[in-house]
Amino acid sequence: MDIYIQSRGISQDYFWLKIGVHENEDIRKNPPIPPREFTDLIDTDAHSLVLGRSQGKLILLVTGLKTSERADNRNRPIRNSVAWVGDASDEAIIKSLTVQALRDELQQIIDKAVKSGGENGFIVLPNERENFKPNAINQGKSPADSTAKFEELSPENQEKLARELEQITAFPKQKLLVVVTGIRKNSDLEAAGVWRGLSSLIDKHGTSETKQSRETEKSNPIAPLSSFFNNSNVVLSLKISFLIAFILSLVLGVFLFQQWKLQNQETENIKSQIDILQKQQQEIDEQIQELQRQRQEIDKQIEKLELLIGEKHTFRISLKPL
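Below the sequence we write its predicted structure tokens.
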């Protein structure tokens, strides 16, 4: 049976690590989890569970396990996710793990084993690895009832489902066996072919679309919106979306302001260069005017010299004897 753990370091982002028997055998690798059949039914950032079959493998995915001491570089709590991928021979162990997950016993086991550090950003302590494969529980005495059942997500119903799994001899043949989520209605679970489902959107009567709720929606159209915003997962998602939008707008604003400053600086530089060129042009014009004035003076002096030369020539002629 293969075991995968998803976590992160203080500065590294989340990724999957395939766990070996020894620490030096751990490698970065994603588990073979089909997204549409598994992760689309849950919020992977919240505490959820999916048990099902894919390509001849029995897969148990548990997400959103809290950590007691670990946080990233923004002081956000780090969460762990675990996936067990086994063959038919591993069914008893995976059933035992599913029972532990329903009883919220896995969180402490994983938190104790996974710590920040190492080149990958997190490590799995060697002496805690054996706890990832518990002893198989008894195979039970009753055959599984193949009829699908969906109930409200609550500690009581989690324990009820855990006891049912302990008592059955084997899982039924459905592809998706157990889903524990906070974001799906019973109609979603039914459409996906889930055998046992627990969801926050299912009421205590085992339905999320009762006659009473439909009548309430007709008489009070604001009620569906109220229930929508009262869901903690939806509110958290909206808060995260608003925060991301705010951060993006802030980053865009800073970027545009910097571009505006650079544009203004370039404009000022161009204006300064124009002023320098205009000043140089003015100096050149003044020099040209001065040269023209000097040329006029030279022309006048030449005219005077020509007159003097003419007068001297006339005087010499007049002095010749007749």
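The longest strand covers residues 57-71.
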